[in-house]
Amino acid sequence: MKNEFDLAPFYRSSIGFDRVFNLLNASQRLQAIDTWPPYDIAKSGDDDYRITMAVAGFGEGDLDITQERNVLIVKGEKNQDKQGEYLHRGIAGRSFERRFELADHVRVDKASLVNGLLTVELKREIPETMKPRKIAIGSAGASQAPLQVIEGEKQVA
Question: What residues does the SHSP domain cover (predicted)?
C-alpha cells in the first residue's frame, strides 16, 4: 500500500517553497532504500553537522566527495583484486554512491578517513544579509518629508 500526500494545496497558497515541496515529492518516490554503506548523521553544534560512513576496505584514493549546489555526493569505487579463490567473501567492497540533500548555505568544511570511518564535517553559514539585524527607530519629525496630495482636494491654508 502506497501513501502519497497531495501537496497541491500548499502550492496554491505558498510562494518560494518549491524546493521544499520537491524534496517531499522525491522522498515519496524512493522505492528501495540502499543501506550500504551504513552511516550516521549527527548535529555537533548549532550550525555544525557530521556525517560518518563506515567504508572499511576503502582508501582515500577509492573515495570521491563532491558538493553540487545543495547535494553532497559520496562515491566509492574499489578495484577488485583477483588474488586467489575466495571460499567466503564477507567484506563488502562493492561500489556505491550516496547522496545527501543539503539545506541552503550548508557547505562541506572538511573530510577525513580514519580506521575505516569516513567523516564529513558540514557547516551552515548564513550570509550577513540574511541574519537578523536591529532597526533603529528615529523621531518622526526629523526625517519626515512633506506629504504630496496626488488625488483629491488640496487643503488651502
Answer: 30-140
Q: In the chain, which residues fall in CATH 2.60.40.790?
A: 34-129
CA distance linking residue 18 with residue 94, whole number of Å: 36
Buried b (16+ CB within 10 A) or exposed e, 120-155: bbbeeeeeeeeeeeeeeeeeeeeeeeeeeeeeeeee
Cell of 117: 570511518
pTM (global) more than 0.85 = no
Grid coordinates in use for 103? 539545506
Q: How far apart are CA 86 and CA 91, in angstroms?
A: 11
Residues in contact with 67: Cβ distance below 8 Å, sequence separation at least 6, in sequence order: 73, 102, 107, 108
- The CATH-assigned architecture of domain 34-129 is Sandwich (2.60)
Q: For the segment 63-73, what is each residue's pLDDT rounded down to a tens digit?
A: 999 998 888 99
Residues in contact with 71: Cβ distance below 8 Å, sequence separation at least 6, in sequence order: 99, 100, 101, 102
Which residues face 41 on adjacent strands? 51
